[in-house]
Amino acid sequence: MKYLIFIQIAVLLIFSIILGQLDCWQDGFAFFLGGTIVLVNLLLHVFVWGQMIRKKLVALAMFVIVFKYAILGTIIYEVLKLPWMTSRSTLWFCLGVSSLMISAVIFALRKEENVI
């Protein structure tokens, strides 16, 4: 799981720097903000599953996960209401939020296990 977190950080930094250099700085920052929100969510998810499930606190872990996603939705809603978020920056923010998919594909391709 640590490897997935490192991949997410690398994807986040690489795409943010490229967008910042090629495009407007707002788009790079919007991507960085979306990717950072997903990274924090991933870190919290690892903590909840690693600590609470190991201690057999399944009901509390499920409550924390559901509550965490409610907070995540509120944070995303508030970020999208910021005055500097244009429709173009909103697109890059959404792509930053979905950057976890890129990291997950890289992580899955890196695994050397046969699943079938």
Write the layout of secondary structure elements.
Blueprint: H1 2-22, H2 25-52, H3 58-80, H4 87-97, H5 99-110
Helix pairs in contact: 1-2, 1-5, 2-3, 2-4
Entry keywords:
82% helix; 116 residues; mainly alpha; flat; 5 helices; single chain; 0% strand
Describe the structure.
This protein has 116 residues and is mainly α. Helix content is 82%, strand content 0%. The chain has 5 helices and no strands. Helix 1 (2-22) crosses helix 5 (99-110) and helix 2 (25-52) runs antiparallel to helix 3 (58-80). The radius of gyration is 16 Å and the shape is flat.
Structural class: mainly alpha
Largest sheet: none
Unreliably modeled segments: none
- Outline, from the CA principal axes? flat
Number of strands: 0
Strand content: under 5%
What's the quick description here?
The protein has 116 residues and is mostly helical. It has helices at 2-22, 25-52, 58-80, 87-97, 99-110.
